[in-house]
Amino acid sequence: MISVRNLIKSFGKLRALDGVTVDFHPGKSYALIGPNGSGKTTLIKSVLGMVIPTSGDIVVDNEPVMNHWHYREKIGYMPQIGRYPDNMRIGQLFDMMRNIRKNPPLLDEELIDAFRLNELVDKRMHTLSGGTRQKVSAALAFMFNPPILFLDEPTAGLDPVSVELLKDKIQKEKEAGRLLIITSHIMSDLDDLATEVVYLQEGRIRYNNTIDELKDITGESKLGKAMAKMIRGLEHTHFPPQGGTKGGVILNDVL
Amino acid sequence: MTRVIKYVFYDILRTRFILLYTLFLLVSTIAMFQLDTDTGKVILSLMNIVLMVVPLVSIVFSTIHFFNSYEFIELLLAQPVNRKIIFLGEYFAVAFSLCFAFVAGVGLPMVLYGADASGFTLLYSGIMLTLVFVSLAFLSSVLTRDKAKAIGIALLFWFYFSLIYDGLLMWIIYTFMDYPLEKITLALVSLNPVDLARILMLLQLDISALMGYTGAFYKEFFGSNLGLIFSSLVLLVWIVIPVWGALRIFTKKDL
Lengths: 255, 255
Known about the structure:
The complex is a heterodimer.
Chain A: E1 2-11, E2 14-24, E3 29-33, H1 40-48, E4 55-60, E5 63-64, E6 75-78, H2 90-100, H3 110-114, H4 130-143, E7 148-152, H5 160-175, E8 179-183, H6 187-193, E9 196-201, E10 204-210, H7 211-218, H8 223-235, H9 247-254
Parallel strand pairs in A: 3-8, 3-9, 6-7, 7-8
Antiparallel strand pairs in A: 1-2, 1-4, 4-5, 9-10
Chain B: H1 2-15, H2 17-35, H3 39-68, H4 70-77, H5 83-113, H6 117-143, H7 147-175, H8 182-190, H9 193-204, H10 212-222, H11 225-251
Helix pairs in contact in B: 1-5, 2-3, 2-5, 3-5, 3-6, 3-7, 3-9, 5-6, 5-11, 6-7, 6-9, 6-11, 9-11
């Protein structure tokens, strides 16, 4: 379980995260939604320890994130833009990651097979297209059977066939009971893959409840429509600075 | 740690810069031995390379390398690896490669042509200077996110210690020449690793008689074992303090 308490992160004058409090429970699948620059990636990077929060606490399975690193064994991360050492070959990259993770016996190489990355092992990373890079990122995120998966815009830049392959894989892992946190701007993807919605805006959580609940309140059957309706509703009201987990309740009053 | 060092090491070997650096040192050392049969004079000529070129190459290469391995660092940060280990692994791998290049490039011809104790002092000072300037390079690398700025800071360090500092020292000595300055200059020299290395070597070369009373005073101090221990300790401080400061900044840095 990941619990984030009162997380604030400032980049100079800009407050990327402005008091975020949220829990991510095992076995659930969260869609992290918000406009560009609303702090989705900053939130994920804070949990990974890549961004150091200005204040607030993050705890992953009872292990505080600050100055710790063992907890990252449990996390698979697919970055929005995968950046890899230019001179490295795909095969070397996979070998290195296995080695860094101390060569666990059970490896999940389904995506490597599905994306046929085995045929590209000798390609250097800087020669790869954006889509192939994305496939490598996906394969790495799932490789070590992590109980927690962060997928930052997983389908962006992939061809239609690969999108379906990746979505099938995500679906499978969701059914296996992993904790999934997915950001995306493609609502139809999230409609299939996620069960919960966390809506971030200007560094604050404005809604946090199940997708079904959101659909019920708004009376829409599609996540995209429901989100649009909710966002319009939010714009016409002033919220207390701490929306937090009570967001759903507040929304009931709005609509 | 060894795993991280190993991969940084592979990366450095792949760029071939270290190989070129070794060849450059090898060719210039052999050329100097060919030009002159007096080992003392050869060492004196080599000293100028060691004092100017080695710090410059070390600091510029290390800074560029650090920024080129940003992707690698980013990749490892999402894995269960300690931040400190990543940083120190980078440091040790870079420092070791540069020291190895120096020892191979300058040391091998010395063994071939035969050199006395002054040769060892040269190797020793060269290694120490390499380590000091790699430390300073890492410090300038974490001070900014911009590669060009970091290289600028690195070059500023080099200019300061190789040229500007000596000018300031001269000015102080000329202005206060009516006062006994031996101990004060000794202290001031300790504030510059390049000067420290220069004095160590000059005294080994037995030309300190040319430096008059102050030379005699230095000879008495640096020529003794106490002086050697003192200068080694000060150089060690010059290695440890910048890298320690850089590590502190790096552990709190957003990536």
